[in-house]
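Question (not urgent): is this output format expected?
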Amino acid sequence: MTKKFSNLLLGLLWLMTVTLATTFWMNIKYGFNIFSAAHWAYLSELQAYRTDIKLDFYISLILAIILGLVGLYFLARPKMRTFFIEPSQMPPPPQVDTPNIFNLQRSVESVKQQPDEQTAPRAPQINITRPMSPTGIPTPQKTPPKNNTVYVPAPKITPADPAISPHLAEISGIFEMAGYIIKPCTRIGKLIKPVVALSYDQTIWVCSENVSGADVLDALQTLIAVFDDTLGDTANDLTVRGCIINSPDSAENSELITTFGTTDEFQEFMTNHPNIKPADYDQDLFDAISTYIGTVTNYIGKQ
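Got this back:
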């Protein structure tokens, strides 16, 4: 009973391991959360509209299922034990010259009276006694530690990275007041801790301060490349925009990047362009996109 219970626990542990590994792989590779009902609903919509989905997406799911079942099989299958029994080396019975029943009985009795030569003698028991601890040995005197003053150098103060926006919290607050959803991100390309915001119309804003237009454009291209690799043609439904506050190279406004001189100008722009739900707003679809964007920013930030 204990062995069956142990096998059950091992099976559950194996399934949990395969499930966590599959979740980690699907999140990193495809931005797909297998525990999210919204993601499955979004996948079913893509399949219903016959949208091209990468073949290795399905291969990953099938391999995960096969791996889980194969592991359960090896854990649950009965283990056959093989016993090797050495044939007893009994002395051969004496030969009987005549088929006399009395001679046969005597022969059998003589065999029973012979000592069992194959029985190995018992090994003598060895009593191990621990040696007594020696007495009369003087205990060494411990030298008291010297009271020396240890000089501890003062910690070095690392100057702040100029690439990090000093008004990061203020920029995030402006986006949140305008109704946008902030997605934490530690790094995109050359931008360190940019503000990434998502709107209801599936627009992703990447905003930073004191950076060049080329750095912001490089960050947008990084996001677009990840979207194309993981979503395919569905990536066309997402819009990527960038904004710069106090650009050092006086970058001009373009279709992708909007520049502002101060945070006040940026706040005025966000006040005039709040995040409003469109007429065809779908809550489940937006939740799936929001989870996907968070996965992408987390993955890019670790590169």
